[in-house]
Specification:
Layout (H helix, E strand, L loop, with lengths): L5 H27 L4 H38 L7 H16 L4 H4 L9 H22 L1 H4 L3 H29 L2
Length: 175
């Protein structure tokens, strides 16, 4: 019988939120600096895969450390499931991290979006994905789906605004 591990939900929420936020941070920083959409694609994809892999492996190492500590303190050890949270973190990061890049990747599927509209659409896809991920948490945790969606959206947009501002400041005063 399947027994749900609450750590998987934590890993999924953590991975999805960070995937959306850090990928959009790259998009917003590059857009704020006024650089080309090709740079957004390269940096966005590179960040998404490298950071997603790093987070998944770090989650695994954190779980492994926690399990080793439990073994020393209480004799408990469940090594056969250690990789699950790392894998869920990685997959959630990659899947959710694609949303901010969608307006920049549309050319690969034959859709043309004017350059001046891409950043606005990236904001929209990011906001949608943050709200959706936050709302979906209520399936497992209960509570108000609108509040949970707005909570994750607010946190993500705060980070995005900071990234855009930093990109704009660097472009305005340092470049």
């Amino acid at each position: 019988m399947f027994k749900f591990n609450p750590k998987l939900l934590r890993a999924a929420v953590y991975g999805a939120n960070d995937g959306i936020v850090t990928t959009f941070a790259v998009v917003a920083g590059v857009a704020g600096a006024g650089l080309s959409h090709n740079i957004i694609i390269v940096l966005g994809l590179a960040n998404m895969f490298a950071d997603g892999l790093s987070m998944g492996l770090s989650d695994y190492l954190g779980e492994h450390s926690e399990q080793r500590m439990r073994k020393q303190l209480k004799g408990e050890y469940e090594e056969d499931q250690l990789w699950h949270t790392g894998f869920v973190t990685f997959i959630a990061f990659i899947v959710a991290g694609f949303f901010p890049l969608i307006p920049y990747l549309t050319g690969f599927v034959g859709l043309t979006i004017p350059e001046e509209n891409r950043f606005f659409l990236a904001i929209c896809t990011t906001a949608f994905s943050l709200f959706l991920a936050g709302s979906l948490r209520t399936i497992m945790t209960g509570g108000a789906w609108i509040r949970n969606g707005l909570e994750m959206l607010s946190i993500g947009m705060l980070a995005a605004a900071a990234s855009y501002t930093i990109g704009w400041l660097i472009d305005s005063y340092l470049l």
